[in-house]
Design goal:
Strand order of the largest sheet: 4-3-2-1-5-8-7-6
CATH superfamily: Class II aldolase/adducin N-terminal domain
Distance between the termini: 47 Å
Number of strands: 8
Structural class: alpha+beta
CATH architecture: 3-Layer(aba) Sandwich
Order of helices and strands: HEEEEHEHEHEEHHH
CATH topology: L-fuculose-1-phosphate Aldolase
Helix content: 40-55%
CATH class: Alpha Beta
Number of domains: 1
Strand content: 5-15%
Length: 255
């Protein structure tokens, strides 16, 4: 019997953890860099066909203010310097362009309802929008899709987006404590305790929707059972797992 390779030392299995910054300025710079990078990546993955696509990150020093991509600016070449700082009422405090006020109002409502959410992403891909058009939740058809098992919700009626503050608040309440929300006839909104996690949940939801729609078009898919789906969610559905999963994708798209 051939010799077995020695086990890999436990310390070599560790991965880089999300950075922690003691100074607000450094944390702000980090969030802005990651937000701009996430927007560029999502655009390259085909999410930019929705003109209302928006991603926000809470300012670490002024939690009622958000950094956001400007209206009408292509995300493919977006930099941290292009981002706007906008207060809860939609007033631009820093930056030389306009904000998409209607879309921003929904993000502001979600951030108000979820003080734990550092970032909110609403950049709808074609499969997520197709799933939303069917008014369906993400089914536990794959291990990866189980990250959303009993951890996302559905607004099962067409809404006017963010035209009404009361409607924005209602949508934010529908999200509850979950990581994602399917907005019927719109697409998927995701949140995260880091920008990277929120961006990964958007990518993961799009991939899960693609598998789900493909499987149902081909036949009758067999969902993963309740206990196994919960176990997979506990392992792959945390924001730390999302952060780790996002890093290779982020690095592959780095300029």
């Amino acid at each position: 019997m051939p010799d077995q390779p020695p086990p890999v030392p436990v310390d070599r299995l560790r991965f880089e953890m999300p950075p922690v910054h003691d100074e607000p300025d450094r944390e702000r710079a980090h969030r802005k860099e990651r937000l701009a990078g996430a927007l560029r990546l999502l655009a390259r993955l085909g999410f930019e066909e929705d003109p209302a696509a928006l991603a926000t990150a809470r300012d670490p020093e002024h939690p009622d203010c958000l950094w956001v991509n400007p209206f009408g600016r292509a995300a493919t070449a977006l930099t941290a310097g292009d981002l706007l700082l906008v207060d809860a009422d939609g007033r631009v405090l820093e930056g030389g362009r306009r904000v998409n006020g209607l879309s921003f109002a929904l993000h502001a409502a979600v951030h108000r309802a979820r003080p734990d959410a550092v970032a909110v992403v609403r950049a709808h891909g074609p499969y997520g929008r197709a799933l939303a058009a069917l008014g369906q939740l993400i089914a536990p058809l794959t291990q990866e899709a189980c990250a959303f098992y009993q951890d996302h919700a559905l607004v099962d009626e067409y809404t006017r987006g963010a035209a009404d503050p009361a409607e924005c608040a209602r949508i934010a309440r529908a999200l509850g404590p979950y990581k994602a929300l399917v907005l019927r006839n719109h697409g998927v909104l995701t949140v995260g305790t880091t920008v990277d996690a929120a961006a990964w949940w958007t990518v993961a939801a799009e991939r899960a929707a693609r598998v789900q729609l493909t499987a149902r078009a081909a036949g009758r898919p067999a969902p993963i059972g309740h206990r196994s789906a919960l176990a997979a969610r506990d392992r792959f559905g945390t924001d730390l797992a999302a952060w780790a999963a996002y890093q290779p994708l982020r690095e592959s798209a780095a300029p």
